[in-house]
Write a structure and sequence with these properties.
- By secondary structure, this protein is α+β, with helices and mostly antiparallel strands.
- The protein folds into three domains: 13-126, no CATH class; 132-238, Phage tail protein beta-alpha-beta fold, CATH 3.55.50; 244-341, DotD protein (Phage tail protein beta-alpha-beta fold), CATH 3.55.50.60.
- It contains ten helices and 14 strands.
- The protein has helices spanning 42-54, 108-121, 137-148, 160-170, 179-182, 199-209, 247-250, 267-278, 286-291, 310-320, and strands at residues 13-18, 29-35, 72-77, 82-90, 95-98, 101-104, 212-219, 222-229, 241-242, 257-266, 282-284, 300-309, 323-329, 335-341.
- Strands 1, 2, 3, 4, 5 and 6 form a six-stranded mixed beta sheet that branches. Strands 9-13-14-11 form a four-stranded mixed beta sheet. It has a two-stranded antiparallel ribbon with strand order 7-8.
- A hairpin with a 4-residue loop joins strand 4 (82-90) and strand 5.
- The longest helix is centred in the first third of the chain and has 14 residues, at 108-121.
- The two termini are 53 Å apart.
């Protein structure tokens, strides 16, 4: 580290980062310039310089200005060899401000990652807008089409693990499941015919029963898939999307009146029977039911003979078992019934 001083006592720190090979846009170089007023912050300058040096940041020049201005990013160089000049402000001994971000002195690692991301992807203002899963609109559409492909094989009688591994291998690119994870997927035989549903929906459903999920990710312009834990706060591909607002259009028979008489049958059999009459697959959220110790095979439900709609009958029957249903669409737009607990997930 080399420190230069002048009569005006200017602080100027330069940090050079080069984008990794393989980025979609041209490899860029980032130069970080931290500026501040040294009259009351000489110690802050020294401590930031030491922290950057300990983190392996080299080629440091020091300068200060009475009017530091605002954080900014300037693009210099050429299209094939861009240089991103980042002006940051030293606010105190503990904090610096960069465009859109603030970092404390204990977050040097995050600062380095921020700079690397800038080198790899350029300024945020020049990047394509990203939505769910951090994907651009074009990337999300590619993923949606991939996951909308129908299962196309009979899942009944297959082991859960076998069906999951077969579906994971068909993704483009395939979802990798190592042997340690595969061991917890379960070898119970499936009694559900899921061949007509979209592969992404079924994969998310089968993984969820094992306490897992999956999500698409984009890195360096390439799209891949990765396993995720199935818990609140973790972004995972959903088991279909909510279609309650379109239920009458998707499943008109759900709202037709019929004579219904159910006496002491399991909740699982009741919903399966109604699902068959609606010609709609029934997917049971076994992961949530297990947490709340609800077994739809053992919970007995009844409904006195009456003329009612399948929608009302199903709600009354499932409520007796602590359950509810929702009309959803799979990734290809086909309707299904999603059965889960009435308790918070």
């Amino acid at each position: 580290m080399r420190i230069r001083t002048s009569p005006t006592v200017l602080l100027f720190i330069t940090f050079v980062v080069t984008a990794a090979a393989g980025s979609v846009r041209a490899a860029g170089t980032v130069r970080l310039e931290l500026v501040g007023d040294s009259r009351g912050s000489a110690l802050a300058f020294q401590e930031w310089s030491q922290a950057l040096g300990k983190a392996g940041i080299r080629n440091v020049r020091i300068r200060s200005e009475e009017e530091a201005g605002k954080p900014r990013i300037e693009v210099q160089g050429t299209e094939s060899n861009p240089v991103y000049v980042v002006t940051g402000i030293i606010r105190s001994r503990q904090e610096i401000e960069l465009p859109g971000r603030r970092f404390r002195r204990g977050e040097i690692g995050r600062l380095a990652q921020w700079l690397k991301d800038l080198a790899d992807n350029g300024p945020p203002s020049t990047r394509p807008k990203r939505g769910v899963f951090g994907l651009t609109a074009a990337q999300f559409e590619r993923v949606r089409k991939d996951l909308a492909e129908p299962v196309g094989f009979d899942t009944r009688g297959m082991t859960r693990r076998g069906a999951i591994e077969k579906l994971a291998a068909r993704l483009n690119p395939p979802l990798t499941i190592d042997s340690r994870v595969a061991a917890v997927l379960g070898n119970d035989e499936l009694d559900e015919k899921l061949g007509g549903l979209a592969g992404g929906t079924v994969l998310a459903y089968l993984l969820r029963s094992a306490g897992l999920g999956f999500a698409p990710r984009a890195s360096g312009g390439e799209i891949g898939y990765e396993l995720t834990p199935a818990r609140q706060g973790v972004e995972s591909w959903p088991v279909g999307t909510d279609a309650d607002d379109s239920a009458r259009e998707l499943l008109p028979a759900l709202f037709e009146f019929h004579n219904v008489n159910v006496q002491n049958v399991s909740a699982a059999k009741a919903v399966e029977a109604i699902g068959k009459r609606l010609d709609a697959p029934v997917l049971i959220d076994r992961n949530s039911l297990k947490k709340h110790e609800i077994d739809p095979e053992k919970a007995l439900v009844s409904l006195p003979q009456s003329k009612t709609t399948y929608s009302l009958a199903l709600r009354k029957l499932l409520f007796q078992a602590g359950l509810k249903f929702q009309v959803r669409r799979d990734d290809a737009g086909k309707p299904l019934l999603w059965v889960t607990t009435i308790k918070p997930h």
